């Protein structure tokens, strides 16, 4: 894929899509940005608003509202569109409605000649990424979801706070579903090259393992706490999408926990789940398999089983 001019299309100009767009502008992360939405007037207004800030950003980005034919030569198409859950609606019914929304998006997207990377932000992101893969016909490595990238960032922030170290020096991962069955691979959690378990065991009581498990629960429940407080989450996911985008466009070969198609990794197949992956300009170069302990392997199996059960009755 040729990336002389970094072009991104955002499909869905709600709070998540526009938080992502705002971070792209502030960090000059692409050369051209196209905003697509069923509400074309809104997309036009959002493009105008961003353009009016260009003089303050130091960016030379070209920003406009567009339609699916404008996606043909995009390097990355990011889907942030979806429908909200109705009161009393079952999760499977919501999934079916979102699958229909994705069909209405992906069919014209692919008809445009798009052959870039498809990045999914719509929840439940693991299942929606799998649906996008099936509908698009793109290679699995070029269809990924935001996965547990944000959950992993939340984990590192909280663990860094507990040990009073920079979160960037915390190496730990949240795996599985971006949701209720996600879990932390504590056996593979480190500060620099020293395991958290060893640090706790040799700290003479200064650090305990129990607070780490409380942190895991806080990570798992963070989104709901934010939603209760401000009705929605968008800044964190916007920045997560930016980090994934930089890894892709920059050909970084960086490791991020994204929703990826599993084909035997972790003993799982036929499912998308959040796992550490090496990302470059081709998409997912490789899924990294961490040496999980017995408990963590069971948690991964349970999480993937949950995702398969949720998605098995969706008509695509």
Automatic annotation (TrEMBL):
Domain called Lactate/malate dehydrogenase N-terminal: residue spans: 7-145
Residues annotated to bind NAD(+): 12-17, 37, 42, 68, 82-83, 98, 104, 121-123, 146
Top-level class of the enzyme under EC nomenclature: oxidoreductase
Keyword check for Signal: no
Record-stated family: Belongs to the LDH/MDH superfamily. LDH family.
Function description: Catalyzes the conversion of lactate to pyruvate.
Family matches, as PANTHER family: L-2-HYDROXYCARBOXYLATE DEHYDROGENASE (NAD(P)(+)), L-LACTATE DEHYDROGENASE
Name under which the protein is recorded: L-lactate dehydrogenase
Species in which this protein is naturally found: Yeguia hominis
């Amino acid at each position: 894929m040729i990336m002389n001019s970094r072009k991104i299309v955002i499909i869905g100009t709600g709070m998540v899509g526009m938080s992502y767009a705002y971070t792209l502008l502030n960090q000059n992360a692409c050369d051209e940005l196209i905003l697509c939405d069923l509400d074309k007037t809104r997309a036009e207004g959002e493009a105008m608003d961003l353009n009016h800030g260009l003089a303050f950003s130091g960016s030379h980005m070209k920003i406009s509202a567009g339609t699916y034919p404008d996606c043909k030569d995009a390097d990355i198409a990011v889907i942030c569109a979806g429908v909200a859950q109705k009161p009393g609606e079952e999760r499977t019914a919501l999934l079916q409605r979102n699958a229909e929304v994705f069909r209405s998006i992906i069919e014209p997207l692919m008809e445009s000649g798009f052959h870039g990377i498809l990045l999914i932000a719509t929840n439940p992101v693991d299942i929606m990424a799998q649906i996008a893969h099936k509908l698009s016909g793109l290679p699995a490595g070029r269809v990924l979801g935001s996965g547990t990238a944000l959950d992993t960032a939340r984990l590192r922030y909280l663990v860094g706070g507990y040990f009073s170290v920079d979160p960037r020096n915390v190496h730990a991962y949240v795996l599985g579903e971006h949701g209720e069955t996600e879990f932390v691979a504590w056996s593979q959690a480190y500060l620099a090259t020293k395991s958290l378990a060893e640090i706790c065991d040799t700290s003479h009581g200064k650090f305990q393992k129990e607070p780490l498990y409380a942190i895991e629960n806080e990570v798992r429940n963070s989104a709901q706490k934010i939603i209760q407080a401000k009705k929605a989450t968008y800044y964190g996911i916007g920045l997560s999408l930016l980090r994934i985008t930089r890894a892709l466009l920059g050909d970084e070969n960086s490791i991020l926990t994204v929703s990826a198609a599993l084909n035997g990794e972790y003993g799982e197949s036929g499912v998308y789940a959040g796992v550490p992956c090496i990302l470059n300009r081709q998409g997912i170069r490789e899924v990294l398999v961490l040496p999980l302990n017995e408990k963590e392997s069971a948690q991964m199996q349970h999480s993937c089983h949950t995702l398969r059960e949720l998605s098995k009755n969706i008509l695509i």
